[in-house]
Amino acid sequence: MHDQSVSFMDRILVAIILPVLLLTVATGCALFGSRTVAPPPPPAPSPAETPVFMQWEQAPRLIDMVTPIYPDSARLAGLEGEVVLQIVVDEQGYVTEAVVIQATPPGLFDDAAARAIRQWRFEPARASGEPIKVRMGQRMSFSLKDVKSAQPPPPAPPAGRLQAPPPPPPIKVREDTPIFLAWETAPKIIEAPAPAYPDSARQAGLEGKVVLVIVVDEQGRVIEARVFRAEPPGVFEQAALEAVRKWRFEPALQRDKPIKVRLAQEVVFRLEKEPPPPPSGA
Fold it and tell me: Among 76-80, 88-92, 93-97, 204-208, which is the least confidently predicted range?
């Protein structure tokens, strides 16, 4: 009798506890399954870079020039020279970049030229009446005859303590053939094969243009070409690149010597107008 009562109580406990356990497990699974991990936030979009032009309708005009400080080491040694810099002038006329691309003698006047030109101000270049950011070349000369009248001579060292001037700071100067962005005689096209008109654009009746940035070497060959802007995008770029790489120029000249230059070149795509049908006979 006792065993029967125990067995009966066990069945009652199992009947009560088992549903509770099952309900708890089911609730936990449901809660765990509903916890989804939030996806990582998308990367912040990078700000659109303002294009830098190499051609313009109205050139930038210098309105405020800071004279470079003549290095003492060069003055004491009686050295003169010049520095050619590649600069970027933004839409407000500020010099935002300055890179030495050629210097004579190398490493002596580079730092003084770069420090001075970063303080220059320009009336910005313009295209279609709007100010634009442009990349251009700027030559800076260092002459002792100018500095003698503008600056007092350095103080003499104390007697018996003659010291050599400090060496100029090391400045890394490009040693390859420089690419100029300014010239005395502009490159002139002498051979320009027409680009092949894409069949898809012709069938769709599309017209457009591609602006390329190209490098023309001292022999007048196009050795570099990349797309800067295309209208409409994705239609005429390849045809423009293939054509302009076959173009030939009379090279740009600086002091009557051919130089390698970088410039912008526009390639226009226009559909040929079909001639009107001949008038029908009476």
Answer: 76-80
Q: What's the pLDDT score for residue 170?
A: 41
> What CATH number is attached to the domain comprising 129?
3.30.2420.10
Q: Which of 150, 172, 205 is the endpoint of a domain?
A: 150
Any domain includes 175: no
Kindly report whether the global pTM for this prediction surpasses the value 0.85.
no
| Residue 125 burial (C-beta neighbours within 10 Å; 0-12, 13-18, 19+) | buried
Q: How would you class 222 by CB atoms within 10 Å of its CB: exposed for 0-12, middle for 13-18, buried for 19 or more?
A: buried
Boundaries of domain holding 128? 61-150
For the chain, what is the domain count? Answer: 2
Continuous H helices in the chain? 2-34, 72-76, 110-117, 144-150, 199-204, 237-244
Task: Compute the distance between CA of residue 82 and CA of residue 260 in angstroms, rounded to an integer.
Answer: 19
Residue 62 bridge partners (DSSP): 122
- Distance of alpha carbon 51 from alpha carbon 234, whole angstroms: 19
Three-state secondary-structure class, residue 255: coil
Same domain assignment for residues 146 and 199: no
**Is a pLDDT exceeding 60 seen at residue 169?**
no
Using alpha carbons, select from 170, 89, 101, 71 the residue that is nearest to residue 126. 89
> Are residues 143 and 210 both part of a single domain?
no
